[in-house]
Amino acid sequence: MKDQYTQRISCPHCGHHIHVALDASDGDQDYYEDCAACCNPIHLNMHIDYAHNKLELHVDSDDEQIF
Ligand SMILES: [Zn+2]
Known about the structure:
By secondary structure, the protein is mainly beta. It contains no helices and five strands.
């Protein structure tokens, strides 16, 4: 299993496709990335499934954070 992944996701706010770099060597991660197109925060939740050597990425918009 390699440690570095680049995943293409689509922004939950505007649908813009962005690439995110994932580092699986640090274990599960939960962080925010700003969309390059609409500047809204995208909530990324990365879960590493060691049993199946899989990396799961959940993307959501955190709708309660409205500025
Ligand atoms: Zn966007």
